[in-house]
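Hi P.,

Sorry for the delay on this. The queue was packed all week, but I finally got your sequence through. Input first:
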Amino acid sequence: MSCLRWWAETVNKRAVVATGNDFYGIPDRQFVSDHSKAKGLAREQLDRVKDEHVRMSLRLQKAFGLRREEALKIRPRWADRGDHLHLKASWTKGGRERTVPIRTREQRALLEQAKRLALPQRLLDHHARRCQWQSPSAHRYSVP
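Then the structure:
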């Protein structure tokens, strides 16, 4: 419709195309989805994950609302700023730093566990490649 309206304006015939989409029965566009794309992971499914680092990553995703890549790249000791997690630009979508508040005792306890597990660096093994958290099979481990 925007192309048609542009054409009508260019040839100075605006009246040829109706100004509203209602006339043509075209519904308003929806820019934001009204349903979540996240997949749930039951406790028994989480218990079946053998790698303790991946399991911790999944728990961090759920507790803090982190994206998969953020949860795998996070360096818990570095990110913990007391009342919030500070996520580096290289860990986040779009390359923008962001902060996530730590609001509950459960979040704090989980973060302390992650710190102990991730000594001395990030949660993911140093030798693991980027494709591990971008592979289609990794998507099944996403947690809402």
